[in-house]
# Entry
Amino acid sequence: MSTPNHKIRLLLELRGTGVTDTRVLSAIERVPREIFVPAALRDRAYENTPLPIGLGQTLSQPTVVGLMTQALELQPKSKVLEIGTGSGYQTSVLALLARRVYTIERHRPLLGEAEKRFRQMSIHNVTSRFGDGWKGWPELAPFERIIVTAAPEEVPQALLDQLAPGGIMVIPVGPAGDQRLLRIRRGEADLLFTTEELTMVRFVPLVEGMPDAAEGGR
# Structure
């Protein structure tokens, strides 16, 4: 079983890998990572490694969660769109730092489990949706922040269109084995996009469209 020492050790490791924002570290400390992993893996919940959550998806490495969250430069009033709910762990960290989080997942079983965890943790500022993340959530756009937790080979235009003026998107981009974590900023006045490469990463691909029943769809 995980102990407070495991969490402390992980937080120290995150600091050593560049996660220095105290609000982000506090949020990670407050979210019980062990409830987001399969029971058989709970003794590994605070290892700095990705863990499988089923349907070919993973719970991201804590360092990556920390770096992506930090790169968003979240404000207390931020309205955030998350593409890829997964286990709901990243969502829960975001919910502690932003006013409202809208999250989309294309695997219905994963979404159902994540929603149970949000209720368990009494998280009330998350709205979730079963849908195609490539399309974003146009009827609720624009979003001040967008985070994508799977890697397309190029940034979906729909997500760029839904980023508010002055907004930030953090997204892994590229084929397997050559993915880069990007921070994309949209200008306040000229609305031009500027892109900054943060680090190399490894994510499952962002798949366009909805899965069939065998993949965890309807």
Q: What stands out?
A: Residues 50-215 form a domain with the Rossmann fold fold (CATH 3.40.50.150). The chain has one domain: 50-215. The first strand starts at residue 51 and ends at 54.
